[in-house]
Amino acid sequence: MQKPVVVCLDLEGVLVPEIWINVALKTGIEELKVTTREMPDYDQLMKQRLAILDRHELKIQDIQAEIAKMGPLDGATDFIAWLRERCQVIILSDTFYQFAQPLMRQLGFPTLFCNQLEIEPDGRIVNYHMRMQNPKKHAVASLKGLSFFTMAAGDSYNDIGMLGEADKGFFFRPPDHLPKEFPAFPVTRTYGELQDCFVREGFSPD
Predict the structure, then answer these.
(1) Which residues are catalytic?
(2) Domains in the chain, start-ordered, CATH in brackets?
(3) Which of 3, 38, 44, 160 has the highest count of CB atoms within 10 angstroms of its CB?
(4) How many whole angstroms separate alpha carbon 136 and alpha carbon 150?
(5) pLDDT for the residue numbered 204
(6) CA separation for the pair 29, 115 (Å, rounded)
(7) What pLDDT score does 164 carry?
(8) Any bridge partners for residue 57, and if so which?
(9) What's the start-to-end Cα distance of the chain, in Å?
């Protein structure tokens, strides 16, 4: 008998635009455009981001105001609905609950595992807290330990552990250099292509 299927997806770049890039575009702060696509060390990246926010006196309210104007990527809502009719879906993200809530509402509130920001009463973001090291990889490993067949899709360095741990891992719209560094993961560019991969590897289209 086939194991039940769980699909694990990255959030930013797969279902919604990159939050920090959108904040960078709205504020004109070019340094905030750097993401885990370019900087694989997430701790270094977040420390850099928090220093930039302090320097420009940006508070959580400023960032949330920009996030509220964002929406899912074209086709993402239908893609999630299609998946949830066929299997369990978990979003594994390095973003923060304080950022993600408006976007989760637009996606129909799929299950989200992410992290938390430490915020002072005036809205200054002073720190961030990961639930654990390598949370995406450990989440997939735990699901496998519960006898689920796991498939995953992501686009960045911080997704590599998740993709490698999954029974089947796929890139979705990665930057050109990543598939060259990690050629084991098939590359998909559209939701239709990703759906085809999931159907071929894990479950029926109907």
Answers:
(1) 10, 12
(2) 5-16+72-116+129-201 (3.40.50.1000), 21-67 (no CATH)
(3) 160
(4) 12
(5) 62
(6) 24
(7) 98
(8) none
(9) 18
| Strand arrangement, sheet containing 5-9 | 125-129, 111-119, 88-96, 5-9, 149-154, 168-172, 187-188
pTM of structure: 0.88
Model pLDDT, residue 206: 56
**197: its two tokens:** 């991969």
Q: In the prediction, which pLDDT does 34 show?
A: 87
d(CA 65, CA 35): 20
Longest dimension (CA), the chain: 57
Residue 133 burial class via C-beta count within 10 angstroms: exposed 0-12, middle 13-18, buried 19 and up: exposed
β pairing state of 5-9 and 149-154: parallel
The confidence score (pLDDT) of residue 205 equals: 58
Q: Residue 136: exposed, middle, or buried by beta-carbon count in 10 A (0-12, 13-18, 19+)?
A: buried
